[in-house]
Task: structure prediction
Amino acid sequence: MALVALACAGCGGEDAKPQGKEALRTACEGVLDPGTIDEARKSEDFDSLHVAGGPRSHAAAVKSLTEKGHSAYVCLLDDQKSSESEAGALSIKFSPDQGRLFPEDETRSYSSFKAYKLTNGMQAITESGGADVYFPCDLSDRLRPLYVTGSIQSELDLSTQARFRTLFQSSRKMVTLLKCKNDIKFPDPATMNSLPLQKD
Result:
């Protein structure tokens, strides 16, 4: 009996992935803060959340953007329902040179999305389950800026502020790794005001 107990002491231990809160603490290279994790607890499949298989990192995404000109995921979380979905339960992706999120002279938000004008030519939008940020990055080896769009998509019960906090934290990592020469400061989402809603 003792031998059986010893033999099974590590059963599933090495292959089992952290799930729920334990997974989110270190997921996506630590971009989810405690407040966001607490909000995610309200989600039905919170306890089954885990980091999806496959190599993903901010450093790999930087290489994809600058050397290949391709979009790249830096983060992908699955739960028991989303493993067959490309975007998973939560994903963060960065894309190069996709253009502005909305026209420079835009003055309104709309029922489908809220628009935010940030400093230094940056923009942000939020819509159902997602948020995007657009920022120019001046690189030493390029004559023109690299225009980066970061996107978060989530099936979790996260507030707009939590989505922006997570996306901005991830974007800060990208700015550091890209070695942007221009001053890029992402705001505190609690202080952000969207453009006024268009009236019907």
